[in-house]
Write a structure and sequence with these properties.
heterodimer, A: Rossmann fold, Alpha-Beta Plaits, six-stranded mixed beta sheet, four-stranded antiparallel beta sheet, 29% strand, elongated, B: mainly alpha
Chain lengths: 309, 234
């Protein structure tokens, strides 16, 4: 659907985006994750054709961003950060204006607008000036704006920034709903959000991609991780003797636990050593009470990948 | 074409949503009406020459006030990003805004038609120069609108846009008044550049293609400049 190759953007001497490559498939919800100033917004703006890349190519379907900017704009809906809309206009007038520019036939406009209003929950504020709306409602109007004319691709820049928790949940639900039929690219610096809404995540830092994959693969591929087991009828010394020789085990430490042994096994992953450990335990007369694989949270991965060196 | 229409509608509508339109129109009518009628009965002549004489000066102040928000506000609020990521070209945006502001100036001039109508009751009014004057006023308004639009594209501060626009318009109006100080060689050129010079020709009732061409070329140059500035921003 979208193909990005060696995309680079310089602002004067400052390199905001540095040779990034990725492909987005149809029907994906892609989260662009990164700390402030990592180049998320710049990347999205280049995808929409609002700013020109310094070098590199973007292809949307078979269209080239330099040559077919106009055609790309037609199949793309965009919500900029903090939804900068015309403050003096009424919500309904604004949506009518957008539907006109989007080339929706006159007879279909009211029904299409009502459909979007239902989806985004803005029915009761249609008659208000945009400038008087709360941030959450403005964001919803922006979302309705982006979805006008059913574009195939939606690009949302920090769609939930500045919203209260209830609104965040609602907006996420809307995005998930849209994501069933459309390709969505959204940027955020909130990890739980990316985890909750996206099926694929790209982490950027200093204009470079540092990780790319689904939430599960990202968690698995991150170095480290540990197992927690609880054993009855065993002592720490013999456990160490039996389990340390297994390839991949880096250390065993005792955690709390009364009447049984609660251990943490630090291991390299991959390879997955759970089977080896189980087999080793089966040979003894220990009683296995608990066996738990603790993966790294996305938060740890994110911090690891984007921390300043 | 239809995209220009929607931008035109939006911009034209926005003028009348905010109170600015009514304030500007009131001030314009008050200033021109007062300046015109304060001397009208002294001259004791049934024509509008005095009204049209002053129009380039009043337009130099009023038109930049009308155009100052067109781009500055969009750049300041950030709505330009939303506008330009819809399927429109920057040329659509520029032309839509230009036509909307020009249409607003026409609306602003409509109440002044009551002057010639009133005068025609109290004396013999020659309608030729009046019609020429209004045609010239619209052309002048369009040229100044283009200049104001250009000024507005330069900055995100509306006050700065107003001052830049006013300076250029006033410069063009007064350029042929300062010719005494200059060498003879460039006199013709500078006179040709003066907006007032061309406007007065039309206002006399003489419709010369050169004067019309002047307005159109000023509009074209300023709009093209706006286009370049907005392209450079991306």
């Amino acid at each position: 659907m979208i193909h990005v190759e060696d995309l680079t953007k310089y602002y004067g001497d400052f390199c905001a985006v540095n040779q990034i490559n990725f492909d987005i498939e149809k029907g994906e919800i892609l989260g662009l994750l990164g700390p402030n100033g990592a180049g998320k917004t710049t990347t999205l703006r280049m995808l929409t054709g609002f700013i020109q890349p310094t070098s590199g190519t973007i292809r949307v379907k078979d269209l080239n961003i330099y040559r077919d900017t106009f055609e790309i704009k037609k199949i793309l809906g965009y919500l900029p950060e903090s939804a900068p809309l015309y403050h003096d206009m009424l919500v309904y007038d604004y949506l009518i204006f957008v539907s006109g520019i989007r080339g929706i036939e006159k007879e279909k406009r009211p029904s299409h607008i009502h459909h979007l209003a239902d989806l985004c929950g803005i029915n009761e504020i249609m008659h208000k000036p945009i400038g008087e709306l709360s941030k959450g409602y403005r964001q919803r109007v922006g979302l309705a704006h982006a979805m006008m004319g059913d574009p195939e691709i939606l690009i949302l820049d920090e769609p939930t920034s500045g919203l209260d928790p209830n609104q965040i949940v609602e907006i996420r639900e809307i995005i998930r709903q849209i994501g069933r039929e459309k390709t969505v690219v959204l940027s955020t610096h909130i990890l739980s959000e990316a985890e909750a809404t996206c099926n694929r995540i790209i982490i950027v830092n200093h204009g470079k991609i540092v990780a790319d994959g689904s939430t599960d693969t990202l968690k698995q591929s991150a170095s480290g991780g540990h197992l927690e087991i609880s054993l009855q009828n065993a002592d720490l010394k013999s456990v160490r003797e039996k389990l340390m020789p297994i390839d991949g085990v880096e250390g065993i430490t005792q955690l709390d636990g009364e009447g049984y042994l609660h251990l943490r096994i630090n291991c390299k992953s991959p390879p997955d050593i759970r089977a080896d450990i189980y087999r080793e335990i089966k040979k003894t007369d220990w009683v296995l009470l608990e066996f738990h694989h603790e993966t790294k949270t996305l938060e740890n991965i994110f911090r690891e990948l984007t921390k300043e060196i | 074409m239809s995209r220009i229409k929607y931008i035109f509608k939006k911009e034209f509508g926005l003028y009348f949503i905010s109170p600015i339109a009514y304030i500007v129109i009131s001030i314009f009518l008050l200033v021109t009406g007062w300046l015109f009628f304060s001397t009208f009965f002294l001259y004791n002549q049934a024509n509008l020459r005095n009204f049209f004489n002053l129009l380039p000066i009043t337009f130099s102040f009023v038109v930049p006030a009308i155009t100052m928000r067109l781009f500055s506000e969009e750049l300041n609020v950030g709505s330009y990003e939303i506008l330009l990521t819809m399927p429109v070209t920057s040329l659509d945006v520029i032309l839509g805004k230009f036509l909307a502001a020009t249409a607003f100036i026409v609306v602003m001039l409509i109440p002044t038609i009551s002057y010639p109508v009133m005068i025609s009751f109290i004396g013999q009014l020659d309608w030729g120069p009046v019609i020429g004057g209004y045609l010239g006023a619209i052309l002048l308004g369009a040229a100044f609108t283009a200049i104001g639009l250009f000024a507005s594209s330069l900055t995100r501060n509306q006050i700065t846009a107003f001052i830049i626009g006013m300076a250029i318009c006033l410069g063009l109006t007064l350029i042929d008044k300062m010719l005494i100080l200059l060498p003879k060689g460039i006199l013709g050129l500078l006179q040709y550049m003066g907006a007032d010079f061309h406007f007065q020709n039309i206002a006399k009732g003489v419709i010369d293609s050169r004067d019309i061409l002047y307005s159109l070329s000023i509009s074209f140059v300023a709009l093209y400049g706006t286009h370049i500035v907005m392209q450079e921003r991306n």
